[in-house]
Write a structure and sequence with these properties.
The chain contains seven helices and six strands; from the N terminus they run αββββαββααααα. By secondary structure, it is an alpha+beta fold. The chain has a two-stranded antiparallel sheet. It has a two-stranded antiparallel sheet with strand order 3-4. The N and C termini lie far apart (60 Å).
């Protein structure tokens, strides 16, 4: 490896104890660098190798300060995918409305689904009773009630749908 810690430090801005990377970042915001004629390298992994703490293959390297662009050897720690996932979940990474919509769309695309989104919207707006709607759409009454309450077939196109508003 022809890269030195001084070369990495020269591409950072020192903010307190952090070395904030000023070069290129990955699509997820982590520091990367390219060797001449070689592949892109994750800067944090390079720093760990240069400080005699080489990470195992696919082992995450995190910063104690939790700044994505920090490359300070004092802040870098070896972690596990499980710990990284738990920390991301605690920060709300897996609970956005966009993620819920994506999961719902995938489930609706699966075989065996009896309704379409348009039918669910008709049920939600209907003033007819649950048993009548259940018979018409060949689904169980509890499913009709879940749709009417907004628990099933959520409408992610309406930003107020989660607040109980109706179109």
């Amino acid at each position: 490896m022809n890269i030195t810690l001084d070369q990495i430090y020269s591409r950072c801005e020192e903010v307190g104890d952090c070395w904030i990377w000023q070069g290129a970042t990955s699509d997820t915001g982590y520091p990367i660098m390219k060797r001449h004629g070689g592949p892109c390298l994750l800067v944090r992994r390079v720093v760990m190798q240069l400080t005699n703490r080489p990470p195992a293959a696919r082992q995450p390297v995190t910063a104690a300060c939790e700044d994505k662009r920090c490359c300070s050897p004092k802040h870098l720690r070896l972690s596990t995918p499980s710990k990284v996932g738990k920390r991301a979940a605690a920060n709300g990474a897996f609970s956005s409305p966009a993620r819920g919509a994506k999961i719902a769309a995938a489930r609706r695309a699966a075989s065996g689904v009896k309704l379409t989104l348009d039918q669910a919207q008709e049920i939600r707006l209907s003033t007819e009773s649950g048993p009548v709607l259940a018979e018409r759409y060949k689904i169980h009454r509890s499913q009709v009630n879940s749709i009417k309450r907004g628990e099933a077939w959520k409408d992610y196109s309406n930003p107020f749908a989660r607040l109980g508003a109706r179109p």
